[in-house]
């Protein structure tokens, strides 16, 4: 255009920074990724007008393998942990499953646009019973016994290319084995037993016992073992309660020498018989050696705070943890004891106030609607009865200091005391006699 047009570039109708622009109206996108996909528009404008042209950029990615498949995890959580699962791979994977069970095979691929997936068995379309889940990304084999041999494969295709991944199912059967026994439960006495040891085998190799949990367990018969007299040994009772809760106490227990026979009875023995085997346990020990402590509080401080209501002022005191001897220690040592309050509400002397009212004055009128009377209202101290500033009583309702009174109709020809009379000449009246009216009866 003449004059030369100014070119502006947009992506999805959003203006691009000038750093993307090149000369002669060209836009260069280096190292293209999926985030660059969209509708690109260029607008050329000069003094004579403008024109806009657009082009859609579609980024293609050929199918590629993924390390995991979130859809497979979601399906497994709904079908139960007994369902075996496997992901296909370009080199092929293998999973061992039990006869008659179901299996999930995931085709973990990605690409742009999303690849179309075709499942094959031994290179041919599927003919056994199956379900396709997660938009064809997961193949569910309902009975793995229908596919004793062969290889499953998934073919992923889009406009950018294709990818084939494979997996194989190995059908094995787990079984219980009881060819070994567990260690004896006791070395002597009358309670020693040993049980056959259950093992889960797969083709003669021991595997995790969870693989056999769906198989019926064989009956296990306990076998008596080590049924003989035990050597003499020291027998101890439980420790008695400590004689003191703090400051060092003592607790006791009983120590005897006994022998447990093969028939299950305990026979008392001389202490020398046990002393040859082991050292005699102690029958007393010190306990609760921590020092006795207590919370100690100082006297309450001055009562301070705003006088806006009863008991709204605050006073403080110091709380210490110390031993019975008066030695201060860390507060942690008193943590098991109830801690006294360090702050409390209080009533200050200045808050002991109330409103004091005087008697009402005589009404300013004997009748009518304009009489009033007043009285004095003061905030005074309860103890001294001396006036204080009104704001000290502000938390109590202030009594009224004036009111209307004698609000009764006046008889004809009478005026209320306290009113004023206005005399004048009647207008429009031939006799010219004086007339009167009430005025200015407001309280002064």
Automatic annotation (TrEMBL):
<dbReference type="InterPro" id="IPR003599">
    <property type="entry name" value="Ig_sub"/>
</dbReference>
<dbReference type="InterPro" id="IPR036179">
    <property type="entry name" value="Ig-like_dom_sf"/>
</dbReference>
<dbReference type="Pfam" id="PF07679">
    <property type="entry name" value="I-set"/>
</dbReference>
<dbReference type="GO" id="GO:0004222">
    <property type="term" value="F:metalloendopeptidase activity"/>
</dbReference>
<dbReference type="Pfam" id="PF19030">
    <property type="entry name" value="TSP1_ADAMTS"/>
</dbReference>
<dbReference type="GO" id="GO:0030198">
    <property type="term" value="P:extracellular matrix organization"/>
</dbReference>
<feature type="domain" description="Ig-like">
    <location>
        <begin position="1"/>
        <end position="58"/>
    </location>
</feature>
<dbReference type="InterPro" id="IPR013098">
    <property type="entry name" value="Ig_I-set"/>
</dbReference>
<dbReference type="InterPro" id="IPR050439">
    <property type="entry name" value="ADAMTS_ADAMTS-like"/>
</dbReference>
<feature type="domain" description="Ig-like">
    <location>
        <begin position="90"/>
        <end position="170"/>
    </location>
</feature>
<dbReference type="GO" id="GO:0031012">
    <property type="term" value="C:extracellular matrix"/>
</dbReference>
<dbReference type="InterPro" id="IPR036383">
    <property type="entry name" value="TSP1_rpt_sf"/>
</dbReference>
<keyword id="KW-0964">Secreted</keyword>
<protein>
    <submittedName>
        <fullName>ATL1 protein</fullName>
    </submittedName>
</protein>
<dbReference type="InterPro" id="IPR000884">
    <property type="entry name" value="TSP1_rpt"/>
</dbReference>
<dbReference type="GO" id="GO:0006508">
    <property type="term" value="P:proteolysis"/>
</dbReference>
<dbReference type="InterPro" id="IPR013783">
    <property type="entry name" value="Ig-like_fold"/>
</dbReference>
<dbReference type="GO" id="GO:0005576">
    <property type="term" value="C:extracellular region"/>
</dbReference>
<dbReference type="InterPro" id="IPR003598">
    <property type="entry name" value="Ig_sub2"/>
</dbReference>
<dbReference type="InterPro" id="IPR007110">
    <property type="entry name" value="Ig-like_dom"/>
</dbReference>
